[in-house]
């Protein structure tokens, strides 16, 4: 298996893909500054303490963000507009990238990861 960096991944993209991926990456890096940035499942991934928090990738006609956060209310309604699979949101390359929406999604994923980490940490403390 070949190890690939995020820079290597981006070097294979066309101009439209690269622009969109770099916008997503900037959001992720701003919200998850302490994450490790790797390529997992063939796409850029932000990991915290070894846990995958968010993935983003470029495809022929769209870019995607994975996974879809488990949320309710207005954000869930917005997600429905972009959901293309059980755990995928896709954004066509020929449309303006909804960066403020993506920021909300990444914030929700960050919050969910922090809750998972806290739950895991507290359950370790209860085991004897």
Please describe what this structure looks like.
A six-stranded antiparallel β-sheet has the order 1-2-3-4-6-5. It is α+β, with helices and mostly antiparallel strands and 128 residues long. It has helices at 6-11, 15-31, 73-82, 99-126, and strands spanning 36-40, 43-48, 51-58, 62-66, 83-85, 88-92. β2 and β3 form a beta hairpin. Helix content is 48%, strand content 25%. The model has no long low-confidence stretch (mean pLDDT 91). The protein is globular. The protein contains four helices and six strands, in the order ααββββαββα.
Mind summarizing the main beta sheet? 6 strands, antiparallel
Q: Assign a percent range to the helix content.
A: 40-55%
The tally of strands reads 6
Name the beta content range.
25-35%
Give the strand order, joined by hyphens, for the main sheet: 1-2-3-4-6-5
Low-confidence stretches: none
Task: Give the number of helices.
Answer: 4
The ordered string of helix (H) and strand (E) elements is: HHEEEEHEEH
Spatial shape:
globular
The CA-CA distance between the termini, in Å, is 39 Å
Average the pLDDT over all residues and give the rounded result: 91
Structural class: alpha+beta
Please compute the radius of gyration using only Cα atoms: 15 Å
Task: Provide a concise account of the structure shown.
This protein is α+β, with helices and mostly antiparallel strands and 128 residues long. The protein has 4 helices and 6 strands.
